[in-house]
Design a protein that fits this description.
481 residues; alpha+beta; Arc Repressor Mutant, subunit A; three-stranded antiparallel β-sheet; 16 strands; binds zinc ion
């Protein structure tokens, strides 16, 4: 019997707002613990929550980007559970009246695009952060709590069980991340916890209609971990079933060091949370006109940008993928492409040199002007400078906001075209390297390369190598006769 994985994901995305979901506390990451707290996010008696409009806007924008239908009326509910990361002992979430339902996201698989349905998108608040001092939740002795995070706006996105491998889950998360970045909905930094993913996985017989028992996997701290954990679970569950065993419905914890899933606890049912409508917040009646207003802010989705970069600029697949994966780089490329039409060459420089400069000098892409690159490439194309010098100029132009042509002029970086200057340099080189000259005259071709290299390094690469080669060869050949 062959079994196939059936996978659904629950993704929590931190919305990019300056204040929390139901109070005015700051959402800044990395502050001193417990300094961004107030009676509302600490759940002190008598405090009243107020819904953050910006969070609502971002939630609606994300739902629209996922082609989901915004519900005209939605509502907040209390999800009750007792755990130290939750100061109120309940989380304000949405249960049976979520913000939006029935969306989809198309992912680029090797077999072509695959549609993954989105069941629901809802808003809720973040819990506090627990730090287990023993390293892992299993071994920790004391745990520390930081409520700075408690109350930060979150959106939960739940997919249908349409994914059928760890690889597809990986692709889905990647595509979702790009969509959210393009629309500036979230920073999507998994390492800071602003994007998190839990996965449900069960096994199904081929053509079988019945779904197997679901296992939930948590603590997936990277897209790679999601892929590894799901592949691991698929193999584990297949083994259990093949040996006549039974899958237990439970919550598993992914152990990053051991690279395996471990049983954490029995799976909770919705009824365990005793959901009930939040009495301190009115239901949300969303006006059509507001939703329409928000829909105007939708960015071009990555899937469309991919297609357009192929059709409009004829770029190679790899270049397209790099530009699409870094929204800022893609914008920079397009700005430059208005003034420079060797698109593939341009893309190579953007993906190579520009990325390197950003990394080496901590440059901010949005503050860089694409004309520095365009002018440099024109200098290179017209033969004023060579490639090595072009890189140098580009760096100076971008770091100090200078014009490439002026850099060439002021630093005298143009190619050496004067034959007389070159003649003197070649003559000096031959005089200083009699042994190499002798070797060449005795028939050792290698010596020629050595001498050319010497001349080139004296000119700091500013001479044309072909001209230098011809001159060195001519002068040596004259000597032999
Ligand atoms: Zn607060």
């Amino acid at each position: 019997m062959k079994y196939y994985p059936v996978i659904g994901l629950e993704i929590h995305v931190e919305l990019k707002t300056v204040s929390k979901m139901f109070c005015g506390c700051s959402t800044t990451f990395g502050s001193i613990p417990n300094t961004h707290c107030c009676p509302v996010c600490l759940g002190l008696p008598g405090s009243i929550p107020v819904t953050n409009q910006k969070a609502m806007e971002l939630g609606i924008l994300a739902s629209l980007a996922l082609e989901a239908k915004i519900e005209k009326v939605s509502r907040f509910d209390r999800k009750n559970y007792f755990y130290p990361d939750l100061p109120k002992a309940y989380q304000i979430s949405q249960y049976d009246r979520p913000l939006a339902r029935n969306g989809f996201l198309s992912i680029p698989t090797l077999e072509g695009d695959k549609i993954i349905k989105i069941d629901r998108c809802h808003l809720e608040e973040e819990a506090g952060k627990l730090t287990h001092t023993g390293g892992s939740i299993m071994e920790a002795a004391p745990s520390l709590v930081d409520y700075n995070r408690a109350g930060i706006p979150l959106m939960e996105i739940v997919t249908a069980p349409d994914l059928s491998s760890g690889e597809e889950a990986f692709l889905f998360l990647n595509e979702l991340r790009l969509l959210l970045l393009y629309n500036q909905i979230s920073d999507c930094r998994m390492e800071e916890g602003s994007l998190r993913c839990d996965a449900n996985i069960s096994m199904k017989e081929k053509n079988g209609l019945e779904l197997g028992t679901k296992v939930e996997v948590k603590n997936l701290n990277s897209f790679r971990a999601v892929k590894l954990a799901l592949d691991y679970e698929a193999t584990r569950q297949t083994e259990v079933l093949k040996n006549g065993g039974e899958i237990i419905q439970e919550t598993m914890h992914w152990d990053e060091n051991k690279k395996q899933t471990m049983s954490l606890r029995g799976k909770e049912e919705a009824s365990d949370y005793r959901y009930f409508p939040e009495p301190d917040l009115p239901p949300l009646y969303l006006e059509e006109i507001w939703i329409e207003e928000i829909s105007k802010k939708l960015a071009e989705p990555p899937v469309k940008r991919r297609q357009r970069f192929k059709e409009e600029y004829g770029l190679e697949e790899y270049a397209i993928e790099v530009l699409v994966s870094h929204p800022g780089l893609g914008d920079f490329f397009e700005e430059a492409a208005k003034h420079y039409t060797d698109y593939q060459n341009l893309a190579n420089w953007v993906n190579g040199e520009i990325q390197r400069l950003i990394k080496d000098h901590d440059l901010i892409l949005q503050e860089m002007h694409s004309s520095g690159l365009v002018e440099t490439l024109k200098l290179l194309d017209e033969g004023t400078v060579n490639r090595a010098v072009a890189k140098e100029i580009l760096e100076e132009a971008l770091l100090y906001q200078k014009k490439p042509r002026e850099i060439v002029k002021s630093r005298n970086l143009g190619k050496i075209t004067s034959e007389q200057t070159l003649y003197l340099l070649v003559e000096e080189t031959l005089k200083e390297n009699p042994k190499a000259c002798e070797s060449y005259l005795q028939g050792k071709e290698k010596a020629l390369g050595f001498l050319i290299g010497k001349v080139m390094s004296m000119t700091k690469g500013r001479a044309d190598p072909a001209t230098v080669r011809k001159m060195v060869k001519d002068m040596l050949d004259q000597r032999s006769c």
